[in-house]
Amino acid sequence: MRIIDFRSDTVTKPTPAMRRAMAEAEVGDDVYGEDPTINRLEALTADMLGTEAAIFATSGTQSNLLALLSHCERGDEYIVGQQAHTYKYEGGGGAVFGSIQPQPIEAEPDGTLDLQKVERVIKPADIHFARTRLLCLENTHNGKVLPVAYHQQAAEFAKKHGLSLHLDGARIFNAAVNLQIDVREIAQHTDSISVCLSKGLGAPVGSVLCGPADLIHKARRWRKLLGGGMRQAGILAAAGIVALTQHVDRLVEDHANAALLMQELAAINEIDIHPSSGQTNMVFIRLTSRSHDELAAYLKARNILISPRDPIRLVTHLDITTKDIHTFVAVVKDFLATN
Ligand SMILES: *Cc1c(COP(=O)(O)O)cnc(C)c1O
Predict the structure, then answer these.
(1) pLDDT at residue 176 tops 80
(2) CA of 198 to the centre of ligand 1 (A)
């Protein structure tokens, strides 16, 4: 029985082309730097992002942590969004492993961090304070695309204040596709950027941290310490190469499906659409008079999965078709017609 899964774009299964590439991948010991497929993935990602170097990591959480540990020393601080993945959803890894203090601030409705607010929390050089060292942004943030002009301002701001700038670009290709620009136009305004292969791009595992060679060299040491020094991991990288070469342009389909989903749901009285919906592959909804848990149970009984949070986040991806959108909307209407 086929399941239609709107919970996340992490749920995709590797395509037949990926499985073939994995089966046929040339491999070696990557801790010795001898896995040709890993080396190819790292070179490809660095080239696509326009950075000097790149390192394959086990997950987005690991690549963001590698960035924190490589930019900051013990007693340093990074400024980050209150709802940012690197702050809220990564177990406080910077503090746990690096003695790096986060300084969270509330993001603006468009997903940016107001640079005047950032400026106010930068700490002066004083023995009382942690050393503010890094600014950490996220694009896309809850499906929202940050403007390129903002990235440029943030880069100038960081430079002026002697901060490095890391971008959590788990879904950066969704942003680039939405803006119809080369992803390098965003990446050029960062000192490091992490990219997830296992979200909308559809690979089973992995993330890549991109940046200057000296930073990536430090990250390679940290990755070993964190237990991320894998051996014949070219089998995983092979899927990542398929993701980067075959699944970037098709993200427009996910965005079109999300836009369609938003449009169809907006026409239903009992549903409120959150304004940050529909820019990329996410739609956020709220039922005005029915319980989200009840909706989730009704859908589940019909092989459709959602996370009944508030608001409900619906994510389109490689394994969701336009027909699935229509199926989903029809089942939601059936649910609302029941009492
Ligand atoms: C998913 C995600 C990550 C990384 O998560 P992993 O599950 O560790 O791969 C990082 N940042 C954002 C914004 C994400 O959505």
Answers:
(1) yes
(2) 9
